[in-house]
Amino acid sequence: MAGINENEFIDELIFCLKEEDVVKAKALLQFASDSNVSATVQTRSLQELAKGPEKVVFPLLEYLTKIEISDPAIQEALYDLILDKAYGNTQLVINYITENEKTARILFLKAAGDLLLAETADTLKSIISQESDVDILSAAVTALGELRLDDALPVFTSTSDHPEISVKRAAISAISRLGNNESVDALMAFLAAEEQVAKLAVEAIAEIQDLYALDKLTTLLRSKETIVRDTAIDALMKLGGKAVPILTRAFKNAESDYLVHLITTLGYIGDQAAISSILDIINTQPKDANIRQAAYEAMERIPSPKTAICLAQGLQDPVEAVRMSAARAIDLNLSKPLVAGLKN
For the chain, what is the domain count? Predict the structure, then answer.
């Protein structure tokens, strides 16, 4: 520990705080790193800093963010102390998120969001519109997202064409926190981005889970982009029975490919509430063989002996693939009425 007397170190820190001597305190704290003092002294230092006035302690905490402190518990204690001193001192937070070096700025940006300091909103918007550093920009977007301000939506959507995925990821997360119709529409703007970003946007829409969001999620089954469509299917499957009435309602006027994906998704969900709607499709005998096949495949995944007799007509389908799908569905839905129907 480079010959530092730890008790003297703490005594000197206490003196500096009492005298409100920031310069000398910083000179002392440069030796608060892992290579100079123990974790115990680092902890005791934070305890003493907690007792000091904000105007003295704030710059010292900022200075400590530059010091090598590897213990996660001490890092957490440092951040907790920053939160404690930042609360009620919004102007100091604003100063630190705009005027300091990168590490400190990111830490205080996080504090602005965690403390829900709405007074920092205009500053955060300014940082987002002007900052070029990706890490700082992402932190500012995240902080502003924590505030859940509707008027911040245009700021978030402006990042949809940003070249860095991390920025778009932060924006998607921020938009999803708003949880309204406008945020759902805004998330749709990210579907044209990279596959990873498009996937995140679809998942964010699914998490909102109100009727408008679920309707939009369902329409994504007609997407030509495989990643968008498959992610939407996965999300609807996770919703389970809650998604069934929305999917079946979308049957009306659905074009062939879209209808196939709707029926297929209902089959994957496996909820018997979908049976009557799928049987309606079977009974109307759609001209498109893909639709007929999707319907029988869905019934294969939602077995119900009570409705199995309706499947027998599929054995007479002119397309072999449809007949095979109907046969597999019949095999899983076999019942006495169905056996009697087949004999006749």
Answer: 1
- Residue 300 maps to a domain: yes
Q: Which residues, 6 or more positions from 132, have their beta carbon under 8 angstroms from its beta carbon?
A: none
pLDDT at residue 1 in the model: 42
CATH of the domain at 235: 1.25.10.10
Nearest to 257 by CA among 285, 231, 202, 220: 220
Range of the domain at 240: 217-344
The answer to whether residue 43 is domain-embedded is no
What are phi and psi for residue 304, nearest 5 degrees? -160, 105
Q: Residue 260 and residue 265: Cα distance in Å, rounded?
A: 9
CA distance 312 to 74: 70
**How many Cβ atoms from other residues are within 10 Å of residue 41's Cβ?**
19
Phi, psi of 317 (to 5 degrees): -65, 140
| 158 phi and psi angles, rounded to 5 deg | -65, -15
List of the chain residues with pLDDT < 70: 1-3, 306-308, 334-344
How much is the pLDDT for 61?
A: 92
**Residue 66: what residue type?**
K
In a domain, residue 323? The reply is yes
Query: What pLDDT score does 336 carry?
Result: 60
323: Cβ contacts below 8 Å, ≥ 6 apart: 314, 315, 316, 317
DSSP secondary structure string for all residues of 130-148: H---HHHHHHHHHHHHHHT
Residues 311 and 295 sit within 8 Å (Cβ to Cβ) = no
Q: Which residue has the tokens 């749709």?
A: 188
**Count H helices, E strands: the chain?**
21, 0
192 domain-assigned: no
Distance CA 292, CA 274 (A): 15
